[in-house]
């Protein structure tokens, strides 16, 4: 069981679907997923990631109101909230504009 937890800690996953809770804000989503990975200072990390993906103005807005590109940006932040060593990406550029693609790369 310990090995499985260690492996999960090493991996980040960005599937085609976002895995975000659409009634939660970006901050609530990232804090939720960050707590699952026992991220220290999870709220500060979440805020920093939302800023890095260029959506700080929408920090507390429900994800259900977001465009596909905005959702993808938050999904990227979700995938890296725990600073994984390995990141698995499934169609990561879906819905992203050139600026967001640059952030991802």
List keywords for this structure.
single chain; 105 residues; mainly alpha; 2 strands; globular
Task: Explain what the structure shows.
The chain is mainly alpha-helical. It has a single domain, classed as 3-Layer(aba) Sandwich (Rossmann fold), CATH 3.40.50. It has five helices and two strands. A two-stranded parallel sheet has the order 1-2. The mean pLDDT is 91. This is ATP-binding cassette domain-containing protein. Keywords: ATP-binding, Nucleotide-binding, Transport. It comes from Alkalihalophilus pseudofirmus.
Give the SSE layout.
Elements: H1 2-10, E1 11-14, H2 26-36, H3 42-52, H4 68-80, E2 86-89, H5 98-104
Parallel strand pairs: 1-2
Helix pairs in contact: 2-3
Please trace the helix and strand order, writing H or E for each element. HEHHHEH
- How many strands? 2
**What's the architecture, going by CATH?**
3-Layer(aba) Sandwich
Please state the CA-atom Rg, rounded to the nearest Å. Answer: 13 Å
Q: Number of domains in the coordinates?
A: 1
Taking the alpha carbons of the first and last residues, their distance comes to 33 Å
- Tell me the number of helical segments per DSSP (H or I, 4 or more residues long): 5
At the fourth level of CATH, the homologous superfamily is P-loop containing nucleotide triphosphate hydrolases
Task: Output the structural class.
Answer: mainly alpha
Mean pLDDT: 91
Helix content: 40-55%
Strand order of the largest sheet: 1-2
CATH class descriptor = Alpha Beta
Unreliable sequence segments: none
* Fraction in beta strands: 5-15%
Overall shape: it is globular
GO molecular function: ATP binding; ATP hydrolysis activity
Keywords: ATP-binding, Nucleotide-binding, Transport
Domain ABC transporter: 6-93
Organism: Alkalihalophilus pseudofirmus (Bacillus pseudofirmus)
């Amino acid at each position: 069981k310990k090995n499985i937890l260690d492996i999960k800690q090493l991996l980040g996953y960005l599937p085609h679907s976002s895995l975000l809770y659409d009634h939660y804000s970006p901050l609530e989503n990232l804090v939720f997923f960050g707590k699952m990975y026992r991220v220290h200072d999870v709220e500060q990390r979440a805020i920093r990631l939302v800023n890095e993906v260029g959506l700080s103005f929408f920090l507390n807005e429900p994800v259900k109101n977001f465009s596909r590109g905005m959702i993808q940006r938050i999904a990227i932040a979700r995938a890296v909230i725990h600073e994984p060593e390995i990141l698995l990406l499934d169609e990561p550029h879906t819905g992203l504009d050139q600026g967001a693609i640059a952030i991802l790369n």
